[in-house]
Amino acid sequence: MACGCSSTAVAEKISWNSAVFVALMLLFSSCESNTRDFTNQMFEECVNNGNYKVCDEIYVVREGETLQTISEKCGDPYIVEENPHIHDPDDVFPGLVIKINPFNYRP
Q1: What CATH number does the domain located at 55-107 have?
Q2: Contact between residue 51 and residue 86 where contact means Cβ atoms under 8 Å apart
Q3: pLDDT digits over 40-93, tens only?
């Protein structure tokens, strides 16, 4: 079955679809960063107002944090010992999930 479409018409359709795809990707990526900024702002407001526990038992590392800063903030000096999936204490990245046991809650 012959299409009857010229290669120029096919190329234009592909070009148009690619341009729409790139524009949508740019739009979605900008919305994602605005959502993160809003979420971080709301988190900090809750912490500053005292409405949110800073360290739950399950903690997700945020950008710029180290095990030392998390340990100081949460009061848990044994983070590496309690999280066997952390092989290198210097290799901590945003999104890493760790278990926290604040020192004052230890038996």
Answers
A1: 3.10.350.10
A2: no
A3: 665 565 555 554 456 888 999 999 999 999 988 888 888 989 999 998 888 899
By the 10 Å C-beta count (0-12 exposed, 13-18 middle, 19+ buried), 55 is classed as: middle
- Show Cβ contacts of residue 61 under 8 Å, excluding neighbours closer than 6 positions: 70, 92, 93, 94, 95, 96, 97, 98
Which of 8-12, 24-28, 42-46, 72-76 is predicted least confidently?
Answer: 42-46
Residue spans per domain, the chain: 1-52, 55-107
Are 80 and 101 in contact by the 8 Å Cβ rule? The answer is no
